[in-house]
Specification:
The complex is a heterodimer.
Chain A (H helix, E strand, L loop, with lengths): L1 E10 L2 E11 L3 E6 L6 H9 L6 E6 L2 E2 L10 E4 L11 H11 L6 H7 L15 H13 L5 E5 L7 H16 L3 E5 L3 H7 L2 E6 L2 E6 L1 H8 L4 H13 L1
Parallel strand pairs in A: 3-8, 3-9, 6-7, 7-8
Antiparallel strand pairs in A: 1-2, 1-4, 4-5, 9-10
Chain B lengths: L1 H13 L1 H21 L2 H30 L1 H8 L5 H30 L8 H28 L3 H29 L6 H9 L2 H13 L6 H11 L1 H29 L3
Helix pairs in contact in B: 1-5, 2-3, 2-5, 3-5, 3-6, 3-7, 3-9, 5-6, 5-11, 6-7, 6-9, 6-11, 8-10, 9-10, 9-11, 10-11
Classes of the chains: A alpha/beta, B mainly alpha.
Chain lengths: ~240, ~260
Amino acid sequence: MITIKNLYKDYGKVKVLRGLDLTFKKGGIHTILGPNGSGKTTLIKSILGMVIPNKGTIEFNGEMIIGKWLYRNDISYLPQIANFPQNLKVKELFKMIDDLRPGAKNEAELISAFQLEPYLNKKLGNLSGGTAQKVNIVITFMFDSPLIILDEPTVGLDPVALIRLKKLIRAEKEKGKTILITTHIMSLVEEISDEIVFLLDGKIYFKGTIEKLKRQTNQNNLENAIANILEGSYA
Amino acid sequence: MLKILKYGFFDLMRSRWSYIYFLFYLSLGFILLFLNQDVSKAVITLLNIILILTPLIGTLFGVMYYYNSREFTSLLLAQPIKRSNIFLGQFLGIGLSLSLSLVLGLGIPFLAYGLFQSTEIFNFFTLLLIGSFLTLIFLALAFNLALIFDDKIKGFGLAILTWLFFAVIYDGIFLIFMLMFDEYPLDKFALGATIFNPIDLSRILIILKLDVSALLGYTGAVFQNFFGTSFGMFFSLGLLLLWVIVPVIAIVVKSKKKDF
């Protein structure tokens, strides 16, 4: 579904992506892991066209996408930090997104699943971090796109919301969608991912199943396996 | 793009500041007319206020809006919307709402004082046109600066400096030049220098229109000599248009290259 070739990106002196090659197959949940600053968000934003790579190509459904925009019709994106216009009400935000990008489907269902009804008339600036994240999730999942990208989706969520989110992610997977997730929560990774991509120093360090990673690092626990890689890289 | 324009427009229309801006012009219009009782004199007084104030407000609102709507912008960037349309839509949305505040704020008192019976009606409309032009020009400049500098303080500072430069410093430098080189023929130079300052350009345009030679000043006189009144007006109007188009193109180019 996505083929990335030889992708380079630097912000001034900081080199973030250094010749990254990566392919995501259609369907399934792919988790992107890596230490802070390893380029996870930059990679995602490059796919979305928010960051413009210095070099390299990105192919999405057989189309070169750098500099294009129409392909974003097929992507739902959950940004890392839920930043919304502060003086807008939750309801107004939903309406606005609906208006800007027609085709939202299960909005009402999602609102009730995350118990957002009492907040509909509140201003976005007054929401707590967790509630804002729920709004963020509703906006992401209300579109029926074949590719869903979630950047740290669990931040600030309470356990109930977290369970709902996992259910939601699984349901989308059942529909045959491709889901990319970045997270630092290993239990979530172990629970849901079909494939792990481990980014280190702007390159792919590991790609495969959790089992393969455990075998490769001789650890029987994912957290230790990851720590093992990281300690190796710090040393 | 129209949808973004709509949201930018209503976003600003809903904020307190555009009402304050509108009410300011409204009261200014009434006070001026009350003191002057004469529409043509009021127009001249207004000229000086508009030449300084509209660029300042355009600059301030431009940077403020850009920095305040960064969240909204990043939300939009992930949607299937063309990048240049996001920024052009925002620019036009604010430009429209600021120009509307100006036109309505001044239009209402002048209409109430019988503008249509006065011979000044065209001069007044030229004034509003120039005010709108200056708003758009400085809004576009401010957007450019905000796009270049992610740091709010830097962007704000430089935007204010840009306004100060065109409103005050430019004329100062210009005058010093005139004094230093007064033995030389400076007509062409003066003409050229005017083109590069939209505020000067607007001043000349409206003064040509008003035909008050006492206010023409050196550059104005040169301008009138060189182009004649009517051609000079079209010429300066075209230049003002260019002053809008070039920064707007710069917005599009810059926004295409920027990382968010």
